[in-house]
Structure formats: C-alpha cells, structure tokens
Q: What sequence folds into this?
C-alpha cells in the first residue's frame, strides 16, 4: 500500500510560519551586524566596521579565546568519559551501583543550571581551588558528558550485537572486538557527541558565571554583561561570528557522520 | 551467549572513570549544597560558618551536628519574596509550556505529514537553531523588541499603533523568549510520535465519516500522548529554573526562583539561603524529574 502524505493548507501554513519564527530573528541579527550605522535600527549601508571593532576589543578577544579553550578541552574530556559511561551502561549488564550511575548521568540533563553551577562552586570553594580555566572546564565536562553518554548510548542500543559476538567467536578478545568492530560503528555518534558538547560549552552562561573567577570571563559572560546595558552593533558582529563557527561545526559533523556511516555499513576493517 | 557475558566484564571497567567523575563533581557538590543550606550565614570568605571540620575530632563533630539549623528553610517558607518567586516560577512554566504545546503541535504535525524525504530536511531545520547559542537567540529578540526596534517600526509603518509599544521588560517579551528558545524541545518528541503513527488509522476514521476535527481529537491526539508528555516535561522542568530569559526580557518587579537564587548568591552573598533555595527548587522539580527519567529510560530500552 502506498502512503500518500496528505498535506493540508493548514499544515503548510503552520510549517512555514514555524520556520519563519525560528529563523527570522537570527537572520535579522546577522544582517544588522553588517550595518554601517551606529544606531542599530537605522540602516546605514553595508560595512564591516563592527567586526573591525570586535577584533580590536582586547577583553572580548580574550574572553572568546578562553571560551574556545574551555569548549575544546571540556568537549574532549566529556566525549571520552561519556563514551565510556555509555559502553558501561549498554554492555556492562548489572554492576553494583548501576542505578545510581544512570541516575547521576540523567539528572544533569534536566537539572536547572543554577543548581549545578551553585553546587560546583561550593565544592571548588571548599577545596580552595583557584577559579578560572580549569574549574569552568571541569564544570562543563560534568554537564556535557551526560549528553555525550545519551547520544552514544542510543547508537549502541541500535547496533546489531551479533557483529561483536562474531568477532569474539573468531578469536578477538573483548577489548579488541570493541576497538575493531564496535568503535568504528559508533564513531558517528561519538563525533556528534563531541560537537554537541562543544556547542553546549560555548553557549553556557549560568554554570560558567558560578564557576569562573575574577579576570577569566568566558565569551557568554562578557556578552551578557554588555547586553544588559543595551543593544550594541559590536555584539551583533560577535554573535554572527559565533553562529558562523557553529555552522561550520555542524557541517563538519554531518559530513563526518555521512562518511563513517557509509564506511561502517559495508565492513569494519580488522 | 557466552560471548555476551565475556564482553560484560571489561565493559563494567569502563564505568570506573565516569563513575568516579560523577561522584566527585555531581554527588559530592550536592552534599555541599545540603550542608551549607543548613549552616549559618557569616561575614567571611567563604560567607558561611563551616560545619564539618574532620580534624577537630569526634566531640567537635557532635557539636557541629547540634549546630545544624533549618533556619534558612524557615526563612524561605515565611518570606514573601521566596514564596512569590516559587509561585511565579510555576505559573510562568505552566503558561509557557501550554503556549509551547499550542504552537509546537501544529508544526510537528505538519512535519509528520511531509513526504519522507522532506521530513529529514524539516527535522534538521528545527534542530539547527537549537545549536546556536541560547544567549544569542535572546539577544536577537532584544534587537527586534527594543523601543525603536524592528517590530515597533513595522507596527508604526502599518499604522497599527500610533506610538511605539513597550515590549522589553514585560511578560510578553519573556514568553516570546521562552517559546522561541524551547520550541525545538517541544517539536522533536511530538514529531517523533506523530511520524511513527500509521496514517491508515486516520484514513479509516475519516472513511467512516468522522469530520477532520473529530479525527484529530479521537485518533491523532490520543495516539500522540507519549510525545506530548515528553515534550511537556522537557520544557517545563528547565523553564522553572530559568534565569537568563526572565532576567533579560522580563521586568524586574517579580522574580522567578532562578533569579532570586542568583541575586541571593551574587548580590547579597547569602550562600546558605541560596543553597536552601536550591534545595527547595529541586524538591519542587522532583516529581517531574522522576517522571522524565522513567520516560527516558523506557525510550532507550525500546530502542534496544
């Protein structure tokens, strides 16, 4: 039986309006970042003036650099830990404290950020840790590894286990079987997990505000304090650059997953 | 069979590193919040009376336990500011979730009706804004809603209003911000259940003479309830604790609990009360959190 999708006029209208609602504000923001006029609302012709302004803003550049470093390192640690957690949960069967473990992994996904931030700060203060790059990195790792774990776990769940079993029947030890068979198959999910962790870290304001120290603000913290004072075209330029960076990340992620899924489907090289 | 069991043991070892990490940076900090919520405010750095000093020996520990107090919780229960903040957080979250469902459902429904090829494209289009920064999306709306922003310019040009309307620092602006930011969270679970539904069911109902609205209410909507539940929880829980959106878009005369916690912490430097507020917030969210966890687990297990 052939299914014919019946799109009513109402369906089309709600889709069009919904997508317009999602994209127009961002589009407007990007367009106004190229505005020559200082007044955000008056169009003064195309110009790169605000980008120039941003690149001469030492404090902003430093914050951006800090954010990038935090995002790359926390995403990397989170991907490692999150993947391990996903493997343990979907292949480890029962072990002591499993319920607590999965509970701890799901909770931060929905926990209000103010609570996560507050609790980590209290820990860092009690440990007398100097707050800055490392404390923010640890905080972001704790949050994002849970997202990585969920992404990788759902991929592991949909895998055909007989492939792993076949490898072991053919004489692979479990670790070798994992590296040779499972790992290539879940690689797209791992890449996607890293990208998700990276953007989440780059995006976070609340947890970073709690866990950073004086003099080491991340980009969202700087943007936030500027935005509270009102709209500035320079902020539009920075936001556009962040959007561009994230767009590049998404494109790389989707290319990587396409590449590895077309490889993975045919054969996993031993 | 046996291979599966052999695989299980090294997989268990994989749990060690993430397990230790989560205990250290999730569970232990939590114990700290609980502990400090029970201690007294002090003008010091850090601004609270330490409670446990393990070096001081057993007697000191007993004395410390005696010094624990629930004063901070009593303060939160009796102070109008906190009671109002909790009530407002819940009202805002319920209203926003209802709006999200109302706006998200038709979009998800439209997506599910698209030809298969286009569904994937539509899904990417819905997810992409979720990848762009939260703060940037709110800032985009400040651009539009400000006094001489685009919205007012359009309204004035169309002669719909004679004077610029005040949008910023109002609840309207806040709801726009929340709906805008959380829409993908509502659409995706709804779409997931709607796309799985057999169109034959709807066809059968309409062949038997049901008018479209009846087909929707008697067939489509009841079948999509799991998606509705997931979407509602996924939006409701974080909105209750939301800080950035009300802070930047709503007025400052009535605060949500996330904002009072922030204020107590950063401005008043009253860490014990902030911690107590966090504990109460968590207790409020416990039921929806447990529900969500169960849903998530069931979905993961179904995927297996």
A:
């Amino acid at each position: 039986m052939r299914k014919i999708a019946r799109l009513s006029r109402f369906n089309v209208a709600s889709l069009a309006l919904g997508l317009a609602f999602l994209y127009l504000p961002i589009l407007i923001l990007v367009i106004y970042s190229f505005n020559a006029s200082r007044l955000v609302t008056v169009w003064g012709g195309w110009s790169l003036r605000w980008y120039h302004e941003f690149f001469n803003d030492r404090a902003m550049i430093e914050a951006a650099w800090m954010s990038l470093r935090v995002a790359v390192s926390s995403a990397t640690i989170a991907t490692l830990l999150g993947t391990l957690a996903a493997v343990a949960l979907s292949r480890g069967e029962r072990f002591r404290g499993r319920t607590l473990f999965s509970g701890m992994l799901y909770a931060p996904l929905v926990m209000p950020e103010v609570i996560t931030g507050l609790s980590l700060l209290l820990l860092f203060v009690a440990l007398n840790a100097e707050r800055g790059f490392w404390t923010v990195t640890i905080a972001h790792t704790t949050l994002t590894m849970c997202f990585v774990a969920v992404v990788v776990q759902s991929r592991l769940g949909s895998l055909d286990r007989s492939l792993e079993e076949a490898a072991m029947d053919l004489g692979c030890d479990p670790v070798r079987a994992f590296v040779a068979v499972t790992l290539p198959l879940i690689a797209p999910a791992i890449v996607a997990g890293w990208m998700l962790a990276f953007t989440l870290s780059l995006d976070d304001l609340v947890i970073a505000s709690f866990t950073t120290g004086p003099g080491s603000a991340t980009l969202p913290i700087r943007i936030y304090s500027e935005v509270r004072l009102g709209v500035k075209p320079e902020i539009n330029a920075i936001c556009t650059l962040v959007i561009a960076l994230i767009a590049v990340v998404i494109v790389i992620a989707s290319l990587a997953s396409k590449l590895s899924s077309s490889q993975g489907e045919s054969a996993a090289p031993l | 069979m046996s291979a599966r069991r052999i695989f299980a043991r090294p997989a268990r070892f994989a749990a060690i590193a993430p397990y230790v990490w989560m205990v250290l940076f999730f569970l232990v900090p939590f114990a700290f919040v609980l502990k400090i919520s029970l201690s007294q405010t002090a003008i010091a750095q850090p601004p609270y009376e330490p409670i446990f000093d393990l070096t001081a020996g057993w007697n000191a520990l007993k004395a410390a336990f005696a010094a624990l107090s629930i004063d901070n919780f009593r303060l939160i229960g009796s102070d109008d500011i906190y009671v109002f903040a909790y009530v407002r957080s819940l009202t805002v979250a319920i209203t926003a979730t209802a709006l999200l469902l109302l706006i998200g459902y038709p979009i998800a429904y439209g997506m599910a009706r698209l030809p298969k090829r286009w569904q994937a494209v539509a899904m990417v289009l819905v997810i992409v804004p979720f990848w762009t920064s939260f703060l940037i999306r709110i800032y985009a709306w400040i651009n539009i809603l400000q006094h001489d922003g685009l919205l007012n310019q359009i309204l004035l040009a169309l002669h719909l209003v004679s004077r610029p309307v005040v949008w910023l620092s109002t609840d309207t602006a806040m709801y726009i911000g929340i709906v805008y930011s959380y829409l993908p969270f509502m659409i995706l679970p709804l779409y997931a259940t709607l796309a799985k539904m057999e169109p034959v069911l709807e066809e059968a109902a309409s062949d038997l003479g049901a008018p479209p609205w009846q087909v929707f209410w008697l067939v489509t909507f009841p079948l999509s309830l799991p998606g509705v539940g997931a979407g509602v929880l996924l939006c409701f829980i974080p909105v209750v604790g939301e800080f950035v959106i009300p802070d930047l878009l709503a007025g400052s005369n009535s605060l949500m609990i996330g904002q009072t916690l922030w204020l107590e912490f950063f401005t008043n430097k009253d860490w014990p009360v902030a911690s107590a507020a966090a504990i109460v917030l968590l207790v409020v969210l416990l039921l929806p959190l447990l529900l969500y966890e169960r849903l998530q687990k069931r979905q993961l297990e179904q995927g297996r």
Q: What stands out?
A: The longest helix of chain A spans residues 58-91. Confidence is low (pLDDT under 50) at residues 1-5, 263-270 of chain A. Chain A touches chain B through 101 residues (CB under 8 Å). The CA atoms of residues 125 and 190 of chain A lie 33 Å apart.
